[in-house]
Amino acid sequence: MHPQPVMASRGPNVARDRRAGFSLIELLTVIAIIAILAAVLFPVATAVRVRAQQAQVISNMKNIQTALGIFKQDERAYPATLGPLVFGRGGNTQTLGGLYPEWLKTREAYHSPALDLPETDVLVQVADDVAVNAGIIAQSIPAGAKDPMRDSGAQMYAWNTMDGHVINGEGEPGTWRYVPHYSRFRTLNTQDPDYKRQLGFRNPPEDTVVTWNDTFVQKNGDVPVRGDYLVLFLSGTVKKYSVKQVADRLSEYNWPQRQEIWRLKPY
């Protein structure tokens, strides 16, 4: 009688081996789930980051407003600029300090975390079309109220996002232009309904716009598309206005409406 061959027991280990890997369908399912989660979470994370950056800028603007109030008490007038301004050409230049560094100790208050600007002191020419727009020509402003921001040779530092903003031009610093937002005088028309809401006067009302920050506005070329403007009022209040809100509230004014943001009132 021949012995029967002994069959090796397959046991439960084989079943475990078969289950050790993932099938193609399982892998595709996992990838699809990850893609869905990313699509949901990425916008949320972006929104959280933007809100945190806006909170930082709002805090900076309130610090600037505090320094502005102290400056007004000391000098009995508002400064020509919020940050350092260099004007003139060649060896005949002057620098106006604005609030920094005597009344505002750190230049970080001028920066927006939404922008990746150079940390070095890059000077940017104030845009020529802004220096003479709306009839605001330095020589025509009433005596004692000359605004050097409107000087044709004025230059601002690229890190200063509170006096205005930088237009990058062709991408190289030499092609950049600085568009100011802060100004003591914006109109000379005494019949303008907002004429008295200008910092060039001794005691403008508290709903006067000091400046605005547009580093959270997305643009198509030079046209605002979406995002928020942060507007600082003389009262110290900072209000957020969407691109649509600005367009609706300033619809009676010619484009670019962003140059008329000083006409906004707090809501």
Summarize the structure.
The chain is of the alpha+beta class. The chain has helices spanning 11-18, 24-75, 128-131, 243-249; strands at 85-89, 92-96, 123-126, 155-157, 164-167, 177-180, 209-220, 223-233, 238-242.
What does the model show?
With 267 residues, this protein is α+β, with helices and mostly antiparallel strands. The longest helix has 52 residues, at 24-75. It contains four helices and nine strands; from the N terminus they run ααβββαββββββα. It has one domain (28-263). The chain is elongated.
Topology order in helix (H) and strand (E) letters: HHEEEHEEEEEEH
- Total domains, how many? 1
Query: What would the principal axes of the Cα set say about the shape?
Result: elongated
User: Percent of residues in helical segments?
Assistant: 25-40%
What is the distance, rounded to the nearest whole angstrom, between the alpha carbons of the first and last residues?
Answer: 104 Å
What is the rounded Rg? 29 Å
Report on the biggest sheet: 6 strands, mixed
Number of strands: 9
Structural class estimated from helices and strands: alpha+beta
**Total helical segments:** 4
Beta-strand content bin? 15-25%
Compute the average pLDDT: 80
Task: Record the strand order, biggest sheet.
Answer: 2-1-4-3-6-5
Uncertain runs are 129-145
